[in-house]
Amino acid sequence: MGFGSYDLVTNALNIFKQAIDITSQNITNASNSNYAQEVPIIQDTYPVGISMQDIKRIQNLYFFQLLQNKSSSLDYFNTRLQYNKQVQNIFNVVGPNSSLHHTTMLFLALLHSFLLIHQM
Q1: CB proximity list for 55: less than 8 A, separation 6 or greater
Q2: Which of 1, 7, 19, 29 is deepest in the core (most CB within 10 A)?
Q3: Residue ranges covered by each domain of the chain
C-alpha cells in the first residue's frame, strides 16, 4: 500500500465523518418541527475513491401538514378563549375574581360569625 492508498482512506474517513456529523445534526434537531432532515449524497469516483456530491434536504410533508393543522386548531381555540373571556366579563360569571364570588364569600363569613356569636 503506497501513500496514495492512505490518502484514499483518509479522504473516505473524512467524508464518512461529515456524513455522521450530518446524521448527528438530524438527531439533535428531531424535535424541531421546522427542521428539514439532511441526507448526504456520497458517490464513488473511480479510481480516486469517494466524494460527497451533495447534501439533500428532506422535509416530511405529512408532518408539515400535521403541524399546519395543529397550528390552525390552536389559533381557533385561542380565539374561542378570548371570546369566552369577553362573555365572562359581560355577564360577570362567578369566578375567584368576580364581585359575585366576593359577595358570596363575605356573606358566608358573616353567617359564620353570626352563628358563632349565637351559639354561646
Answers
A1: 22, 38, 39, 40, 41
A2: 19
A3: 3-59, 64-119
